[in-house]
């Protein structure tokens, strides 16, 4: 028999919640951190070993992003129906297979295969949706903070520095092989220790009558897409994600256009990444206090101001401060999105909602990066792109506040 134990956010976490959080954090960091952190430094060696151009070698990451984004909604549905432990293990095996392929192949086709068919699905299964869903299921109290800690970009900050030194001592093939063996040693045992749900606890359900939900109490993909509040939460989060990818891709040429030297522009990029570590925890904590949707509205307000300040082409010290703060807010998008989805649609709908959000964000990110480069080539300035981002964040304020006004999930159920 099940009995209510108070609001979902007040229900205590299961004693194993911290262990599941560690598993999720390691999985996210190893998959995302090694793939994204190693790519740029290994490009020159790929060109040499495979005899391809820089543009051909650079095709790997777009394949990962497109593959993971397109698969994300399907992964979200799978996670709601199939063992999460099994899916995390499949993601781990795909990650290891990708690195072993890169270590031994002399074929450009297999190089693309490793990124598109191994790392792309692995990013959804074991890098983003799987770990975030595990946290969403196990944490009732301080869920936003837990999501923030799990998504700390620790490995992606360490890998470039480590690989730069390793390349002078060992071959690129040995580096790929070492990463694959480390991934296997960490991800496979931890994946086996993952538990799909807290024993004796039921997931919070979608706040709708039974007739408007699926059999497991969640919203289907079609039901989520039919709800304006889902679109509001999703688009408010996409604004932050677009901002982060845009700056991550174009900050160096932006800095050069503002009169900074290349080392100064590269330093701005490092500052954005380092300050982002604090933002993941800070906005996870804020989301627990004011709710995920309101936290997204707060991020929208702050970022609209920060992007508008970039129009002034400030001196380097002020640009560093503004870019650092934008990075901090951008890193807060994942925990606030996770809290907003579970607040509004319940834990049972989380994986579907997160997967859909990944796909929804893809065209915005692509248009922002390509469009910003085009604006610069036509006008000689990035000001038009900056104005567009500021306007996007103004709309995120309204979207977040609208999403915060709806019904919240019903009470958490636990074994009596």
TrEMBL record:
UniProt KW keywords: Membrane, Transmembrane, Transmembrane helix
GO molecular function: transmembrane transporter activity
Stretches assigned to the Major facilitator superfamily (MFS) profile domain: 13-408
Pfam families associated with the record: MFS_1
Gene3D superfamilies the UniProt entry points to: MFS general substrate transporter like domains
Taxonomy, superkingdom: Bacteria
InterPro entries in the cross-refs: MFS, MFS_dom, MFS_trans_sf, Proton-linked_MCT
Record field: transmembrane: 21-45, 57-79, 86-104, 110-132, 144-163, 175-195, 230-254, 266-286, 293-310, 316-334, 354-373, 385-404
UniProt name for this protein: Arabinose ABC transporter permease
Gene source species: Novosphingobium resinovorum
